Here is the input.
Amino acid sequence: MRLQRTYWCGNISGKNIGEKVVLAGWVQGRRDHGGLLFVDLRDRSGLVQLVFDQERHGSLFAAAEKLRSEYVLAVSGVVIGRSPETLNPKLATGEVEISVEDMDLLNTAKVPPFYIEDNIDTDENLRLRYRYLDLRRPEMQEMLKLRHRLLMATRKCLDERGFLEIDTPMLTRSTPEGARDYLVPSRVSPGFFYALPQSPQLFKQLLMVGGVERYFQITRCFRDEDLRADRQPEFTQIDMELSFCTRTEIIAEVEALMADLFQAILGQKLDTPLPALSHSEAMERYGSDKPDTRFGMELQDISEIAGECSFKVFSQAISGGGAVKGINVRGQGTFSRKELDDLTALVQSWGTGGLAWMIVTEDGFKTPIAKFFTAEQLDRLGKHMHAENGDLLLFVADKKENTQKILGQLRVHLARQLDLVPEGKHHLLWVLDFPLFVYDHEEKRYTSNHHPFTAPREEDIPMLQTEPLEVRSLAYDLIYNGVEIAGGSIRIHGGEMQETVFRLLGLTQEELDEKFGFLLEAFEYGAPPHGGIAFGLDRLLMLMSERKSIRDVIAFPKTAAGTCLLTGAPATVSPGQLKDLHIYTVNRKRS
RNA sequence: GGAGCCGUGGUGUAGUCUGGUUAACAUGCCGGCCUGUCAAGCCGGAGAUCGCGGGUUCGACUCCCGUCGGCUCCGCCA
Here is the structure.
């Protein structure tokens, strides 16, 4: 480069008038008036207008006429103030322009496959395939800056609070429980595999045994499961662990971090302590362990009335030990029969028998199941549902957990469809006291709700042997607008309790020794009481920046099928590479 | 593993339900004109075998089957 940059485009202002500057960047656009040519020059900081005047600039003008979008330039010139009628209030630098005196064409460019500007409506395939062009768009640059600020603010806050950032291995061992692992074959140990970490869970607990006391790490985690709008196979966690802390203290630490991040990213003060719900209350009221509390439509339990009525779907659900619950969709009594049929089909696809509906009118309830209820029962039902004229009541009858789950999903679905979710709100909420175990009907055994290192609530410990499903844990999830953004727990720190839990999970002594022996051994050497939490950083940023997909806050994300459209990963490898790794493949789909 | 939606010049869309002449519109691109634009303007031009394969038909962008790619959701994700 012949010309050395002295300023960034977006930083030029009226203060620089008369100054000679050197700028560099990409050609955003060009307006050719014949003898007068305007070029918008863009760099990371913004845009500034360059002017080429045929009379004043002579030979330079001919070169300027050859400029095209995304050509790369360095220019030197004088900052001049624009005359009043040519000011551009839409541009941060619209007060000035650069009268170019010298130009260095650093590179040409092909015509880009989409517009390098905000709010483009282009196939995401193209954006991902040409991500380096997508990233040039101002809103993507903004995202990268925001992500950087989030990382910096996290490090600053946790450093000030006495946490040490310590990195842990990426090549580690596969452990049972949890998500499917990404495996890495070992060349030097034929037939042996590393696993990429699903989280640094075991290492951070070992760091506590190692006397670190306060640890954090911003690290990549890998889970080989199917993707969603808020799930990528590799994602970034803010991982934390503390020794000698109660759950209350850990929650306070996390709230302090969140308050700092809200200030740094949103410029908002976060009111702490944050509200909290027990898991059972969240399930009862919202049918979800990650309730979106930005809108109402809470679940109402009508099991008592359902048990009395003669509608078999309801009464049999109750006599079979299940529950009947409903939601009141305010003012939506205008749903057509077809719309209701579609909703029914939807909940059926989610795994329940059907959907009962009632429309509240001046003349009572309009519903196909009216004849199964007495007038008194309907009256009570209406009161229970807080029914008013024009409301739509929807009911599900099933096993209690299923009733709640289906209605919870329906609640969120309808809120989105009916646009009931307020924009621009940032609702944070703790969900506490998750059950320690859930029963896996397929595998016919208990599995950990959080993970196997989660401690039970002290008062529930006696139930471990008698009613394990009733045992509540010292786990906590942080929910942000109905999305889980962090989850953690107080850990088990005694080898005996840890063994009890592993046994309940159905691990044999052999497996236990092989897979977790090192942890149990560590616990025998004076493990301090400890606990921690891990944030999904990508999700956090997605919510803070109000974007719809986690892909929009990751520089190089993968598609729903886990492929990278830019690099073509995953891809085949040479037979030689496979041979080195002692691997042969079968039934190869892609060639 | 399952369900739904989408795929038409470089880009965004129309046309597809109800098969029938040169596949339309906007923008971008190329060329010309033009000294105050900033979504510049005016004139002209090039550019799509309609994701791919097969079937039905005299005839397929359109109907049917399959397949590939993308998105969303369920399962899965301690």
Observations:
- Chain A has a mean pLDDT of 94.
- DSSP finds 18 helices and 22 strands in chain A.
